[in-house]
Design a protein that fits this description.
By secondary structure, this protein is mainly α. It is 93% helix and 0% strand. The chain crosses the membrane at residues 146-167.
Length: 169
């Protein structure tokens, strides 16, 4: 019934040139006939809606339909229980992941402090090595000067012995 007015409007638009040539009496007759066809279709639609719209058909279910609905309900309850169990498992896994993430965060913070300590120790060791190298260079210089003095002393002692030996002869 909803499509008929649209079809009659669509059919009127292409024929508008022909209708302009027709008399106004013919237009009114066409309108009346279309309204009558609408009125005829309405009781059929109401009779069809009466069975479904009132809900009378739903009250009377056969035993097979009842059994089928019960089986479907049991299946749906089973699926819901399975989904509930899966949700519980996922929830437990999420809690475990959260706990592990907290442990991971603690370990990362602990590693950060350890890395800072190691960095400070490396900087200190580098400074100690530089100081040690400087002390070694200074010791080498002092040792070289000491050797020169010892060598000079030995040479002077040798010359004095030679001079005393020559003087004694």
């Amino acid at each position: 019934s909803k499509l008929e007015p649209e079809q009659s409007n669509v059919s009127k638009s292409p024929l508008s040139a022909e209708k302009s040539s027709q008399s106004p009496l013919e237009d009114s007759e066409e309108k009346l006939s279309s309204e009558e066809s609408k009125d005829r279709n309405l009781p059929d639609d109401e009779s069809n809606l009466g069975l479904w719209g009132d809900g009378r058909g739903e009250d009377e279910l056969s035993p097979e339909e009842i059994q089928m609905f019960e089986q479907e309900n049991q299946r749906l309850v089973g699926e819901m229980n399975n989904l509930f169990d899966e949700v519980r498992q996922i929830e437990g896994k999420v809690v475990e992941i959260s706990r592990l993430q907290e442990i991971f965060t603690e370990k990362v913070l602990q590693q950060e402090t350890d890395i800072d300590n190691i960095h400070q120790l490396v900087v200190g060791a580098t400074e100690n090595i530089k100081e040690g190298n400087e002390d070694i260079r200074e010791a080498i210089k002092n040792n070289a000067g000491f050797r020169v003095w010892i060598l000079f002393f030995l040479v002077m002692c040798s010359f004095s012995l030679l001079f005393l030996d020559w003087y004694d002869n």
